[in-house]
Model the fold of this input.
Amino acid sequence: MNLIEKRFSKAAMAYDSRALIQKRIAAALLAEIPDGFSHAADLGSGPGVNFKRLRQKAIQVTGIDFSPAMTGIAASLGIPGVRAVTGNIEEIPLPDNSCDLLFSSLALQWCRMDRVFREIRRVSRNRSFIALAFPVSGTLTELEEALRKAGLQNRIIRFHEPEEIKQILKNTGISGNIRLSEQDFTECYSSARDYLDSIRKIGAGSAPENSPVSRDSYRRLHDLLRELERQNRLVHTYRTLFITGYLLKNAAPPLPAQKFIC
Done:
């Protein structure tokens, strides 16, 4: 189990109560989806917070998450027509052409985008509906600035530029009647602890390659956040890219996948 998996597994029990802005983004994405599908895949489904709404859209729902703790909670919901599977969404554990609705909210930023999009294309039927949302460049800039002032640069994962995503979509054959749009979601916090816990307690944390924060660095960060707290300026911004619409698999074949030699 890698570091990201460990963090999300540890956060499984607290996720539902802490993921406030994540739920708002998912609700906005779900509102874009029409009804009447047969099989929906929820990629990066976590503890199943979106299962009930997706079940209203499709006869069958398969949630996939790499954290056994998350899928365990999701399975315990016991929603008819819904199953939770532990697996890697870079290698979706579903057959070719098996889904007509592909949904993912705030999960793809942790993955190799090209691999996920190729897998989405593989498991989709022609004219499947895709509904994807994930943060892009411009996300968590307030926290990033506070970390920089505390001497803790590069603690946040790198978010893709929208233009990069457009190129990846083209290279992986994701085309059709598909719309890309951006929207900023903000959440305000009353204390420095809540501000940091809103990320840590859902398993996100810092970029996995970073070393632990020293006591002095944490003290500097805490002092900066306490000052923002006094000014009522503790804000997280999630600049979110929405990709929605019907995938036409016959429109444009993907480019050959690149091979990497380590």
